[in-house]
Structures are given as structure tokens and as C-alpha cells.
Design the sequence.
């Protein structure tokens, strides 16, 4: 069965969609769960602590963390709280692999801390590479650790590349479901409400990534992430709307061959592959019934209506801190939309404005990343305040 049965893992974002499914995999294969991190859902985190008995746990919210610490005082789990505590846990955990499923740019510092502590990373936090791609890749190389993708599309590409000789990759076909509004016009999208945007046709995900799927921002962020993960240029990536979400992505080879990875729309397969790579084992997800699917369709995305995708592609072409700007503006805009303070189409407008406002730079630090992120968020808040 391989030596992965003794694997020790930490899960950052354990109460979210990826986190809970990661624990499904841990439960199936009896991984040792050393550390857990949540934002503020201490009810679920308490249940996880009592089941998996991690040595450490951390909560971003200080108020929630103080309550949790009292609740689990009868266990051996050490509880800390605050953003810095999360970073410290990522570095100090006894785990050999850290699953980063934190939402947003908040995942960047914990990723870098874990890498610098010689931990392998199973990455579900795409913002880590969107904002700090070059810094993260440099740290991975210097520390000799693995950076394995958990996103279904990037895992699919990674799986397709196994056994492909160096230099044989021609391009990437990055699939997208198209979200709940595929085929809609700008006029039809003006009156969209958060409840409408949260109805994803195929995947069960958290609110932020579901809205990103509706705007195609998620696919734009994945283009940026793929550039860093697979050392390709943006022009080598083609976004394909595949409504069935069965082909999770594909690679084009120089000889004209195309290799695709198929599977049921269930995140536990890519999570497990990141944890057991290069071995494969039975997974706690459903098998694919290809006859039940019946038909596959492929269409081009509408970047005129769903402008976030185009903004992300321009951002990675321009480079520097522009990807950070579009990401930060989007994170703020999604929150504003969910709170009813801006319209659905305003998200794309805010992202485009942040892209143009951010100047091009050749080199930058982590502090520069967070400064650019802050400026982009302030732009979003100013936009909303003037409506």
C-alpha cells in the first residue's frame, strides 16, 4: 500500500469545503491530523478537534479562538488565535504536508512559512500563487519541498503530465463550468442577486469561490496559477467552457495528441492525489458513470460579458503586482456584492479599475504584495461608497 499510511498532515481552512473533504480523505486512509486551522467556525472546529485529536489548532478570529480554547480545555490540543498564530502553526506543525485551503490572500504567509519550514504543500489556496507566485516558487526550490495542486483543474493538468517528456507540452486546455449564468447577457445580469449567483450547477463550494465561478474570476485566477505551476505562458492556456464538469482539464502535446483527466465533480480525488502522489488508491468519492453523462460539450468563454477573465489574463501578461491588484479588488468586491452594496456587474468593473490603477513593477516583496492588495481593496470600497 505504500508508505503514505503514516502521513502526517495539517489542514489550514479545515472547516471549509476543501477542509472538510480533506478530513474525509484523512478518515479513509487513517492519516495523522497534526494541526487544524479555521477562520471562526469554532462549532465545527471543536467537533474536528474531538474526532482527530490534533496537537495544535489555530483560529484567525481572536474572539472565537478564546472561546474555543475554553471549550476544548479538556483535550490535549493546544489552541492559539490570530493571523500571526496561524503563520506560526504552519511553520511549527509536526505535519510533513500542509494542506492550504484558506480563502484569499490570507493564505500567502502561512504557505511561505510552511515551505520555509521544509513542509510539502498541497495547495488549494490559489491566491498564494496569484499574488506571490515568483516568491513561492523560489522558496520551494530553495527548500527542496513539493508543491502539489489541489484545485481540480490544476490537479487534472498535473495528472495528465505524468509520463509526458520534458519539452513535449504544447498547451493547456483549462476547463470551466461556465457557472450559473453561462449564456446570459449584460442586460440579464444587471438584476442578479447573491442567492442567484450562489447556485452553482455542478460543484458544492464556499460562497466566495462560487461567486468567482459565476463571474469567471475563478477561471482567471486559475490561468494565473497555471502559469506559475506549469511554467507556461498565458498564450499557451486556452479556457474551454465544458458545462458537464467531467473533463477537469487537458494538455495538448507537440505531436497533436491531447490527454484529458476525467472524473466525477468531487474534490476528494484531487485532494487525495496531492497527498498520496505518485501512488493511487481507492478514494471516498463516487465513480464516474460515463454513460450517465452521455454528452460532452465545449464552448468559448464570453469575455465581453464576463470581464474578470480578461482582466486576469491581462494582469498575468503585465506581471508584477497586477495579479495581486485584481485579486484584492475581487475579494473586496465579492464581499460587497454578498452584502448587497454593489451589483453583480460591478465586480468586473472594480477588478478592471484596480488592474489599470496598479503600476507595473519588476521586483517586489511580501510587504509590497500586501500594500498592493490593500490599495486595490480601498479602490473597491471607494467605488461602492459612490454608488
Sequence:
Amino acid at each position: 500500500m505504500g508508505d503514505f499510511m503514516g502521513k502526517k498532515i495539517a489542514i489550514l481552512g479545515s472547516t471549509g469545503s476543501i477542509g472538510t473533504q480533506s478530513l474525509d480523505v484523512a478518515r479513509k486512509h487513517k492519516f495523522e491530523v497534526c494541526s487544524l486551522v479555521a477562520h471562526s467556525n469554532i462549532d465545527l472546529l471543536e467537533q474536528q478537534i474531538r474526532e482527530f485529536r490534533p496537537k495544535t489548532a489555530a483560529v484567525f478570529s481572536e474572539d472565537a479562538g478564546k472561546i474555543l480554547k475554553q471549550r476544548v480545555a479538556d483535550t490535549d490540543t493546544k489552541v492559539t488565535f490570530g493571523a500571526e498564530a496561524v503563520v506560526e502553526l504552519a511553520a511549527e506543525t509536526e505535519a510533513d504536508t500542509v494542506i492550504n485551503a484558506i480563502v484569499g490572500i490570507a493564505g500567502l504567509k502561512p504557505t511561505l512559512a510552511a515551505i520555509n519550514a521544509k513542509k510539502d504543500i498541497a495547495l488549494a489556496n490559489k491566491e498564494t500563487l496569484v499574488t506571490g507566485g515568483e516568491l513561492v516558487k523560489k522558496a520551494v526550490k530553495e527548500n527542496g519541498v513539493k508543491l502539489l495542486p489541489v484545485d481540480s483543474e490544476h490537479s487534472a493538468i498535473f495528472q495528465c503530465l505524468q509520463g509526458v517528456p520534458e519539452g513535449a507540452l504544447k498547451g493547456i486546455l483549462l476547463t470551466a463550468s461556465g457557472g450559473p449564468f453561462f449564456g446570459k447577457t449584460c442586460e440579464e445580469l444587471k438584476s442578479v442577486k447573491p442567492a442567484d449567483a450562489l447556485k452553482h450547477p455542478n460543484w458544492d463550494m464556499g460562497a466566495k469561490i462560487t461567486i468567482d465561478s459565476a463571474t469567471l474570476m475563478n477561471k482567471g485566477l486559475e490561468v494565473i496559477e497555471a502559469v506559475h505551476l506549469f511554467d507556461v505562458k498565458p498564450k499557451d492556456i486556452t479556457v474551454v467552457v465544458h458545462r458537464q464538469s467531467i473533463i477537469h482539464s487537458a494538455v495538448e502535446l507537440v505531436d497533436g495528441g491531447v490527454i484529458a483527466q476525467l472524473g466525477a465533480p468531487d474534490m476528494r480525488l484531487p485532494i487525495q492525489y496531492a497527498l498520496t502522489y505518485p501512488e493511487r488508491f481507492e478514494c471516498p468519492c463516487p465513480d464516474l458513470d460515463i454513460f450517465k453523462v452521455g454528452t460532452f460539450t465545449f464552448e468559448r468563454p464570453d469575455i465581453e460579458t464576463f470581464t474578470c477573465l480578461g482582466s486576469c489574463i491581462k494582469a498575468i501578461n503585465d506581471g508584477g503586482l497586477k495579479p495581486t491588484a485584481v485579486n484584492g479588488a475581487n475579494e473586496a468586491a465579492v464581499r460587497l456584492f454578498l452584502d448587497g452594496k454593489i451589483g453583480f456587474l460591478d465586480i468586473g468593473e472594480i477588478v478592471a479599475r484596480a488592474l489599470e490603477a496598479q503600476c507595473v513593477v519588476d521586483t517586489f516583496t511580501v510587504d509590497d504584495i500586501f500594500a498592493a492588495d490593500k490599495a486595490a481593496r480601498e479602490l473597491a470600497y471607494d467605488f461602492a461608497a459612490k454608488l
